[in-house]
Amino acid sequence: MQQFYLTLVTFMPILGALGILLVPKERSEVVKIIAAAAAGVQLWIALMILFAFDPNATSMQFVEQYAWIDTFNIQYHLGIDGLSMPMVLLTALLSFIGVFASWNTKKATKGYFALFLLLDTGMMGVFVSLDFFLFYIFWEVMLLPMYFLIGIWGGPQREYAAIKFFLYTFAGSILMLLAMLALYFTQDPHTFNMLTLMQSTYGRTFQIVVFLALFIAFAIKVPIFPFHTWLPLAHVEAPTAISVILAGVLLKMGTYGLLRVSFPILPEGTLWFALPMAVLGVINIIYGAMCAMAQKDIKRLVAYSSINHMGIVLLGMAAMTKAGMSGAIFQMFNHGTVTAMLFLSVGVIYDRAHHREIDGFGGLASRMPIYSGVVAVAFFAGLGLPGLSSFISEAMSFIGAFPVYTTLTIIATLGIVLNAGYFLWAFQRIFFGELNEKYADIAEINGRELFTLVPLAVIIIFLGIYPMPVLGLFDTTVNQLLDLLHFGTAVSMF
Question: Rounded to an integer, what distance in angstroms lies between the CA atom of residue 334 and that of residue 331?
């Protein structure tokens, strides 16, 4: 059965979506149960993959490779390594949690959960694809359901937010398509096989041009300044579960694309652009933190905090050291769990108060002590408190970057102070001080909401104390990638 693990983990949500389409739209509870079952089975398969995964292997694992479109040498080619494994697990976990976070959805329930499961398949497919053409298809499959999930089930400005998200991402996709075709036609025979592309050599000018096209495509998804403007609005207008998926998984697709495609296939282009990447990472860190500090809407604050935290990922990647690269990948996973917890926490209070204005609350700790404790874990994880998972990954990213970009890293650490400032300030205004009498009878967090938040809190605390279960997954992969970047050679094409 292991030889089909990746197909099963990728397409299980599609089976659930097909099952949902067969259910009458009036049977909304049945629709939700099918969605939960499909996401639950996917998570179970992801855990089976995790337990069977060999972190010391130097080749791709669970490989599936079949002829698909022979005329153009396009293959159905799946496989994972230490870079993919954390992302597969994160996608399955957050998709499962997202189903339960969407449980109160009443508007067109059947359509919502069918699109949610289609989105799940698109995301998972990106992380397991080893054929660039297949990678691109899954990348585009993800775009359509996200557009409708924001545009139909979002907030007052949902149409504008959805269109802006679509146009930004689609523009990046066009650049990716051009880069993909350039790589395809330089091969003889032509191929989209990523492993073959990684073993090929290209001229420096060619690498730089293709790298820049791919970088913009992936930078839009991260998002990296100045391609970030779609993100805050999309987060604010999206339903809670979609914000969780958007920040927890979709943003990682950008940095994953850089590490899976750009870095190993175009090593000389990567080294040429390393310093600009580091500069953009620092801009993200400082700019994101300052924008977050200026927000009055708690969801918008969390959205800008994602720009801040993804800047740390970019800085660690740009350093191209063992600590920096490992910290960046670990931060990708940690940010997924932390930001998911943050957006879920915002959803809890929004469902009760029907607004997200930070100054509109006050004193909630006296009425919602359990909820306050859960949010405290999320906020302190967000600011990188020692003992919680984000501290380890952020520290590793800075340790790896400091010897390479000393001045930039010193500037970037200012973001840590700003980060602590906006999280603590928001927490104090929402939970302490005088209670707003409007919320004297506000209901405590319920069991379903705790079911979505507690597992994430456990992961955050556990990895903050003992990070090796995740760090150990990609140690070998990081070593291989660094060897390629530091010792790879290129021949002239022009």
Answer: 5
From the list 162, 161, 87, the residue with the least C-alpha distance to 332 is 87
Q: What distance in Å separates the CA atoms of residue 45 and residue 454, rounded to the nearest whole number? A: 21
For 199-232, the pLDDT digits (tens) are: 888 888 999 999 999 999 999 988 888 888 888 8
Residue pLDDT, tens place only, 315-365: 999 999 999 999 999 999 999 999 999 999 998 888 888 888 888 888 888
Distance (Å, whole) CA 273 – CA 271: 5
Q: d(Cα 376, Cα 371) in Å, to the nearest integer? A: 9
- Cα 163 from Cα 412, distance rounded (Å): 33
Q: How far is CA 96 from the centre of its chain?
A: 15
42-46, 87-91, 179-183, 296-300: least confident range: 296-300
Question: Tokens at residue 412, please?
Answer: 């970037």
If DSSP codes are grouped into helix, strand and coil, which group holds residue 174? helix
Distance (Å, rounded) from C-alpha 238 to C-alpha 146? Answer: 9
Cα(471)–Cα(464) distance, integer angstroms: 12
Q: How far is CA 123 from the centre of its chain?
A: 9
pLDDT of 1 reads: 63
40-45 own/partner pairs: CB under 8 Å, 24+ apart: 40/96, 41/12, 42/9, 42/12, 42/13, 42/92, 42/95, 42/96, 42/120, 42/124, 43/92, 43/93, 43/95, 43/96, 45/5, 45/8, 45/9, 45/12, 45/92
Burial 457-469, CB ≥16 within 10 A → b, else e: bebbeebbeebee
CB atoms within 10 A of CB 359: 10
Distance CA 386, CA 465 (A): 9
CA pair distance 268, 207, nearest whole angstrom: 7
pLDDT band at 34 (very low <50, low <70, confident <90, very high): very high
Please provide residue 277's backbone torsions phi and psi, each rounded to the nearest 5 degrees: -65, -45
Whole-angstrom distance, CA of residue 326 vs CA of residue 294: 32
